[in-house]
Structure formats: C-alpha cells, structure tokens
C-alpha cells in the first residue's frame, strides 16, 4: 500500500486516526490523491493496519496524478525482517472446525439407543450374537439395557468395551434388591474394575407407572443403591426411570436421582404426528426439569413404531418412523440428552390394550437381520 504525500500532508496525517485492516499486506495499493504544489515528495509504505514499514524522500517536479490514471510504482522494500505488531497470538485464535479423516459424523453418534439381548423367541442371546449387535450399534454414544437376567450386564458391557461405547445399565425392578446390584458389580470386575464403562445405573423402569411400587419406596431404593455403588467404586449417575407423566406428578423421584430420567413417546398421544415427535419429547423434558427446580432431564426412551394400529393421528408406518426419528434428532441436536427406542424389533413381546398392536415393532435398525440370526 503506498501513499504519496508532501511533508505538510504527512504531518497532518499524524493527527488523524488510522484505519485498521484485518490482515497484513504490502500488496494492496491505494491510488495517489491530486497533488497541487509539492516541494518534497514523501512515499510512506504501510501495512493494512496503518503501521509504517518505510519512508522514502524524493525531490521531483510536481505532477498531477488522478486516481484513475496509471502510475509507475517503485519497487517494494525488502520486508523479510519486518515483524508486524498486529499478529494475533496462536493461543487467542478461534478454534475453527477442521475436517478429520475417519471422524464419526453419524447423526446418532451423540445419542444413546436402547437394546434388549433376547432372540425373537424370548431366549437369551449368546455373547457372539450380542457382540454382533453392539458392533452394529457402535456409532451411538451408549447402549441402554434394562435388567440383569441372561447375564446381560456382563455380556453387554464386555461387548461395549470392545467397541468403545458406554452402557446405561440397571435393575428392572426391586425384586431381590439390593442383592441384584451384585450383577452390576460383577460386570465392572469383568471389565477390569473399570466403572467408567457405565454411563448411568438405573434402579427400576416405570415402577410407579405400572403400580409395582410407590414413589417413596423407589426413592429409597435409589438412595440405597447409590450408597452401595459408591462404596464399590462407581461415581457416575444413579437414577430411577419412569414415564414423563409420573415424573411430573412425583418430583421426589427426580430429587432422589442424579438427574431426571423419563420415557416419552409422542405416539401414545393421539393428537401427535411423527413430525412433532422431537418437539413433543423436548417440551416434556423442559417441563420435568422446571418441576424439579431446574435439574437436568434425559429422555431415556423415545421413538415411533413402524407397524401396528393407528392411535388417532399417530399412525405407525416405516415412513412415519423415519420422520419421527428425524424429528427427535433435530430437536435434541444441541442438547443430546436422548435415548432412541429401540435398536431392533422386540418380537418376543406381547401386546395389550394400550400398545395398539405395535409393541413388537419399534426397532429402528434392520429387523430382517435379527430374524435371520435367530435361525442360525
């Protein structure tokens, strides 16, 4: 950048404020202003921030140069040894997104997914079958399981550890509690004493909603479990899971838990469409947190069936399931406190009057591979 000014103009320029630019450059040129009667020509080389690089003095016959007229420019001074004083230190530069080869860009990589280790006939899957399932689900952040039967805590934890993901484990009910916690402790022991494999440990799934236990009993069980698990070395969250409506009615369940854990399915509201499944779930999460004094809420189940009978405006179909899952991903994109329901069709389940013939058909993944594996 070059300015042609006379000595008087240079002195006046010292009184005016500089105009900073965002990068260092000596390549950009500014055309000279109209020069009337200079006695000494001074050429000042500056960078875009207005810092002086060099000054040249020339005595020449006055000429008139207009902004749009061609001008012969002198050679640029050597700037190899010039250190601009406006360079931002590296530690203050923003961290710009960088494309990393092999980076997991799967839309579900921040969400959990629920999983049941049973065949279509309700028998226990082998470790090899579980390991193949977990490999298929490894792009999720964690796997949610529900109980301790079939030695599932140990088997799923071993498979998850191999694939680098965590496990949301739990005891399904309060039968044999607290002895049932031994299965979780044994799973940690089998993992080399690494309790960090567990994302969360849940005490009961919808026990109040099903009428199996009252809220006080469940809250006491959560506190008892936390004491036992802390003594064994686990420092992660301990919660109980129930439906969003129960959590709203009984904030004491949230109070006993390290965060509020609620199952929420828009399909069971007959006014909902699959496109609103995400907003429906996140709205319920916000209401639960508000009722619990601002405590964090994770939606521990949410999905949409791909087959079954309509529930009013909520219609099960493969296309509607895709729409609902897309809606959930979008709604929870900035705050991925969500467990998608569920990995595969649970063909071992049976329906009742509240499930609309859809209880077996919530699987998000390819269900054909599930049936094929059962035949082996």
TrEMBL record:
List, alphabetically, the SUPFAM superfamilies matched. (Trans)glycosidases
**Subcellular localization(s) per the UniProt record:** Cell envelope
> Which processes are annotated in GO (biological process)?
cell wall organization
Q: Where is the signal peptide?
A: 1-18
The alphabetical list of record keywords is:
Hydrolase, Signal
The protein's matches in InterPro entries, at most eight in alphabetical order, are given as: Beta-glucan_modifiers, GH
What is the protein name stated in its UniProt record? Cell wall glucanase (Scw4)
């Amino acid at each position: 950048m070059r300015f042609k000014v006379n000595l008087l103009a240079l002195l006046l320029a010292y009184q005016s404020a500089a105009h900073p630019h965002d990068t260092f450059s000596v390549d950009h040129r500014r055309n000279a202003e109209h020069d009337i009667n200079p006695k000494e020509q001074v050429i000042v080389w500056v960078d875009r921030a207005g810092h002086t690089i060099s000054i040249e003095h020339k005595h020449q016959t006055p000429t008139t140069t207009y902004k749009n007229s061609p001008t012969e420019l002198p050679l640029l001074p050597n700037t190899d040894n010039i250190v601009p004083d406006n360079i931002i230190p590296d530690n203050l530069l923003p961290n710009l997104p960088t494309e990393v080869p092999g980076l997991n860009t799967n839309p579900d990589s921040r969400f959990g997914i629920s999983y049941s280790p049973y065949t279509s006939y309700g028998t226990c899957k082998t470790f090899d079958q579980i390991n193949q399932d977990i490999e298929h689900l490894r792009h999720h952040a964690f796997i949610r399981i529900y109980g301790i039967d079939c030695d599932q805590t140990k088997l799923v934890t071993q498979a998850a550890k191999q694939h680098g993901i965590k496990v949301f484990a739990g005891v399904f009910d309060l039968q044999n509690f607290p002895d049932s916690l031994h299965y979780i402790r044994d799973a940690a022991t089998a993992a080399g004493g690494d309790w960090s494999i567990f994302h969360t440990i849940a005490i009961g799934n919808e026990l109040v909603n099903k009428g199996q236990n009252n809220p006080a009993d469940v809250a006491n069980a959560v506190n008892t479990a936390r004491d036992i698990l802390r003594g064994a070395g686990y420092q992660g969250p301990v919660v109980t899971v129930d439906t969003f409506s129960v959590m709203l009615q009984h904030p004491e369940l949230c109070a006993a838990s390290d965060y509020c854990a609620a199952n929420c399915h828009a399909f069971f509201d007959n006014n909902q469409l699959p496109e609103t499944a995400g907003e429906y779930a996140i709205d319920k999460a916000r209401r639960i947190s508000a009722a619990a004094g601002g405590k964090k809420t994770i939606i521990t189940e949410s999905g949409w069936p791909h087959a079954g009978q309509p529930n009013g405006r909520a219609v099960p179909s493969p296309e509607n399931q895709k729409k609902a899952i897309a809606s959930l991903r979008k709604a929870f994109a900035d705050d991925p406190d969500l467990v998608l329901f569920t990995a595969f069709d649970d063909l071992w389940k049976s329906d009742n009057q509240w499930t609309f013939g859809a209880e077996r058909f919530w699987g998000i993944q390819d269900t054909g591979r599930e049936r094929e594996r059962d035949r082996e």
